[in-house]
Amino acid sequence: MTAAWKAAGLTYNRYLAIAGRTLRRSLKEGPRLQAERRGQMDLRFAKWENGKQGEPQSLAQANNAAIAQQAEK
Questions:
Q1: Coil, strand or helix: which one is 46?
Q2: Residues 6+ apart with CB under 8 A from 59
Q3: Cα–Cα distance list, 12 to 5, 8, 15, 20, 22 (Å)
Q4: In the chain, what percentage of residues exceed pLDDT 70?
Q5: Disulfide: which of 17, 18, 32, 72 matches 27 by Cβ 3.0-4.6 Å?
Q6: Chain-centre distance of CA 25, in angstroms?
Q7: How far is CA 38 from the centre of its chain?
Q8: Mean pLDDT lowest for which of 1-5, 14-18, 27-31?
Q9: Can you list the positions of beta strands (E) in the chain?
Q10: Does an H or E element contain 56, and which?
């Protein structure tokens, strides 16, 4: 028997994201705001060149900068 999320065509990570968001939205105001803050992430990355790590950057800011750069061309 296949899991319901798999039968629906979802990945496990996507299933967990939907379940977590649904749970956070069902809470009362105070606990909901605290849970929503915990649910936010700030992904960071760094490029490596010649065996040395570059400056860590926010993924969201890097994506926005790349989109703006493409729009200029």
A1: coil
A2: 42, 43, 44, 45
A3: 7, 11, 5, 12, 15
A4: 95
A5: 32
A6: 17
A7: 12
A8: 1-5
A9: 44-45, 48-49, 52-53, 57-58
A10: none
The dihedral through the CA atoms of 7, 8, 12, 18 has a sign that is negative
Residue carrying the six token digits 């849970």: 35
- Rounded CA-CA distance 33/25 in Å is 9
Instruction: Give how far Cα 24 sits from Cα of 21, 29, 42, 48, 52, Å.
Output: 5, 10, 19, 37, 40
- CA-based R_g, the chain, Å: 18
Encode pLDDT of 24-57 as tens digits.
889 899 888 888 777 666 778 898 999 999 998 8
Q: Which one-letter amino acid corresponds to residue 58? A: S
Q: Check if the beta carbon of residue 47 is closer than 8 Å to that of residue 30.
A: no
